[in-house]
Fold this protein.
Amino acid sequence: MILVWLMVIPFVGGFLCWQGERFGRGFPRWVGLITMSIVLLMSLYLWHVGDYTQTLLNPSSPQWVAEFKADWIPRLGISFHLALDGLSLVLIALTGLIGVLAIACSWNEVQRNVGFFHLNLLWNLAGVIGVFLAMDLFLFFFFWEMMLVPMYFLIALWGHNIPGGKGRVFAATKFFIFTQASGLLMLLAILALVFAHYQATGTISFGYPDLLAWTRSGAMSAQLEWWLMLGFFVAFAVKMPVVPVHSWLPDAHSQAPTAGSVDLAGILLKTAAYGILRFGVPMFPHASQEIAPVAMWLGVAGIIWGAVLSLSQHDVKRFVAYTSVSHMGFILVGIYSGTEQSLQGVVIQMLAHGISAGALFILCGEIYERLHTRDLREMGGLWSRLPFLPPIAMFFSAAALGLPGMGNFVGEFLILVGSFPINPVITIVSATGLILAAVYSLMMMQRAFFGAAQSDEKLRDLNVREMTTMLSLMALILFMGLYPQPILDVTKATMAGVQTIYATGLVPPAASVAEVLP
Amino acid sequence: MTRDQLLALLPILFSSATVVWVMTAIAIRRHHWWNATFSVVGLNLALIGCVVAYFVSPQIVTPLLVVDSYSCLYMAMVLATGLATATLSHAYMEGFDGNKEEVYLLLNLSVLGGLVLVCARHFASFFIGLELLSVPLYGLIGYLVKERRSLEASMKYLVLSAAASAFLLFGMALIYSQTGALGFADIGARTAAITAGAPHTVLVIGGAMILIGIGFKLSLAPFHLWTPDVYEGAPAPVGAYLATASKVAVFAVLLRFFVEAKAYQYGLLLDVLSALAILSIVAGNLLALLQENLKRLLAYSSIAHFGYLLVAFIAAGQFATEAVGIYLLTYVVTTLAAFGVVTLVSSPYKGHDADRLWDYRGLFWRRPYLTAIMTMAMLSLAGIPMTAGFIGKFYAITAGVEKRQWLLLAAVVFGSAVGLYYYLRAMVQLYLRTPWVRKYSAPLDWASGTGGAMVVALMLLMIVLGVYPQPFITAIQAAGLH
C-alpha cells in the first residue's frame, strides 16, 4: 500500500497547491516542498527496510520487494499493479530529491500562478513515480503519456521566450509531439505483444510478470520479437534522447523554466533508460542483442555529437542540454554492453547525471536571476563579482567532466570497464567523450567566470536556501564518487537479473514456434 | 401488438408524444423556459423508457424496427445528446430576439428520427429515420435567420444532404431490384446467394451509392466538404448535436446493417471502407492544422475521429462492436463538452458566436474552471491518458491490432501525431495572457444554469471514463450485436 501512497501523495499535494493559492503565494510552495520531502523520506524508509536482493528478475527468489495489485479493467486483463525493486527504488529516491530541488529553485523565480505551477510540477513528478512503479504495461503507458501534459504546461506557460528562439509554445509542442508520437509506436508494440500472448496462451493480460514469463519461454518468433523491440526502442530512444531524434531536448531546455529543466534533465530522461532496462532488454533479449551494435554506435554518436555541439552554444542552458545528450550516450552504450559492471555503471551514471545536470541548471537559473541573461558572450569575469557561485559551478563542471572522486566518474568508469570486453572499439571511441567533456566544461567555465568582467558591480550572492541546496548536492555527488557501494548493493540484484536475461539473448531461442503475427 | 412490444417502443412513443406536446404548448403560449422544460422532461421520460425497453428486449416490432440491448444503448446515447443540446440551447437562446421556442420542437423531431434510425432493421425505417433526423436539422442550422453564415450553412446542408439522400435511395432501389428484399437480414441472405463467386455489378453500384450517402452523413473524406462550413455557421448547440447525435445514430445503423446483412464477408467493401478511413484521418488532421476557427477545427477533428472509428469498425467481430461502442461513447462525451464550452462562452447569443481561437485567448485567467473543462476536452480529443479519449483510441487501436490492420494503424499513429499539434495549439490559447481586449467570457454564473451543470457533468464523465472505464465497458459489452 505504501507504493500507492508514493504516487497518490504528490497528486493530492498538487491539487492542494492549486487550491491553496488563495491563502497566499507561500502556501503552494510550502505544500509542494513538504509533499516532495515526504516522498523522499518514504523512499529512504523503503531503502532502509527492504530486502533488495529480491526482484522478479532474480532467478533464486523471483518476487518483488513490495507490491500492490488490484483489478482495474478486467475485461482486457489490465490491473493496477505497482511493484518495487532496487532499480525502481533508487530512481524514486532520485525523483523525490529532484522534486525537492525543483521546488526550492523556483521559490523566487516563479511569481505568476504559483498554485497552478506547483500542480503541474507535482503531477509530473507523480507521473514519473508511476512510470517507475508500474508493472502493468497499460499502466506504464498510461503514466508514460500522462507525465507529458504537465511538462507541456510548465514549458509553455512559465518558460522563457529567449531572443532568437522559436518561442516556448513551439518548444513545448515539439517536446510533446516527439514523445507522444513515439509513445504511440510503443503502444502498438505493447498491444501486439499482448495479442501474441493471448493467441498463444488464451489469457489476455497486460501484466509485466505474465508477459515476461511468456517471452522468456522462447515462444515468440524472432521476427515478431524484432518488431516489438523496435517499437519500444523508438519510444525510449526519443525520450533518452538518442542522436538523430534528440532535437527536441535543447529547444525544450532553453525555453523551460529552471524547475522544468531540472525535472527534465534530472528524471524525465531517466525514464527512458529505466524503460529499456525494465522492458526493452528483459522482454526482448535476442532482438536487443541484434540491435546492440547499432544502439551502441548511436550512443557513441550521441556522446560525440552532443559534446561537439555543446562547444558552439552561446546559451548556457542549451550548452547543458547538449552535454546531457552526450552523457546519455554513455548510458546507451552501457545498457547495450550488458555486462554487470556496465549496467551498474549505468545506474550510477543516471543518478550522478541527474544530480549534476540538475545542479547545473539550477546554477543557470541563479545566474539568470542575477544577470538577466543566459548568453555566455555577455557573462565573463563573474568570478570576481560573486564569491560563492563560481566555485560551486566549478565543482559541478568538474563532476560533469568526470573528475575522479565524483559520482559521474564512477558511472562512466564502470560503463567503460564493463563495455571494453564486449566491444573495445566502441569503448575507445566513447572514452574520447571524457576528453571532450573536459574541453567543453573548462571552456564554459572560462567563458562565464574568467576573463574580463563586464562590470565591476558586485552581484547578490547565494542566499541560505540556494546555498543549502547546492551544498547538499555537492555532498551527494562526493558521496557517490567516494563510496558508491550502498547504491550498488541496492541495484545489484536487478542488474544481475537484467544481465542474465540479456546474456540468454546470445543463444537463439530454443524452439521457434510458428508465426503468431505477420 | 403485444404488451412487451409496446413497452419496447416506449422511448419512441414518449419522444413522439413530446413533439406533439411541445408543439401544442408553443401554440398555447410562447414561454421559453416552459417550452424548454417540457422538452427536457419528455427526453428524460424517453430515457426512462429506454431502461424499460431494455428489460423487455429483444423485441421485433413490425418488420421495420427491432429493440434489442444494442438499440437501447444507442437510443440512450442519442437521447442524452438531445438532452445536452436542449439544456445548452436554453442558455444560448436567451439572447436571441426572434422566436426561441421552435428550437426544442425541431430538436425533438430530430431526436425521434435518431431513435427510429437506431432501431431500424429495414430499408424503409432506415430511410424514414434518416430523413426525420436530417430534415429538422435544416431548420436548426439556419435558426439564426438574420445571420448570413447560419443561413448559408443551412442551404449548403439542405442541398448536399438532399443529394446524399437521393444517392442513398437510389442505391436502396438498385439493391431491391436485384434481391427483392428490404429487410437487412433478407438482403444479406439473397446477396450471398446471388454473388456466390463473382461480384454482381448492379449490387456493387447500389452498395457504393449507399456508402456515398452514409459517407456524407458521417462526413467521411472525400464527402466531408460541407462539414466545416456547416459547423461554423450553425449555432453552437446545434453544432454539438450535429457532431454527435446525428453521427452516432447513422453509425449505429451502419454497424447493424453490416452485421445483419453479413456484409463483412465482402473484401471489396472493406477495402473501400479502409480507403475512406485513411483518407478521413489524413485529410481531417492535415486540414485542421490550418484552422483559426475553433468550430471549423472541431469539424475537421470530427472527420478524423470518424476515420479512427472506421478502423475499429473494419476490424469486425464481437470485439469491434464493443470498440465502436466505447469509441462512440467517449467521442460523444468529449465533443459535447467541447461544444458545450463554446456554447457557454457564446451565451447568451449576441449576434456572433465566439468561435475564433483568438476569442479564447487567456480564458483561463477569467474562467479557470470552464477552461479546465475545455482543456480536458482537447486532451481527450487528442487521446491523452486520464481522459475518455484515451480509452476510445486505445480500443480502436486494440481492435486494429487484433485484426492486424497495420496500414490503418500507421494512419492512426500519423493522424494522432498531427492531431496533437492543433489540439495543443487550441489548448494553449486558453492560457496565454493578452493585455488587451477581452470580448468573450462566459457569464460569471455559468455553472449555475442547467447548461453549465451539464458541461460539468460531462467533464466528470470524461475523467471517470478515462480512469475507471470498466463499468462502461461492461454495459457496452452487454449491448453487443449477436
In short: Residues 168-201 of chain A form the longest helix (34 residues).
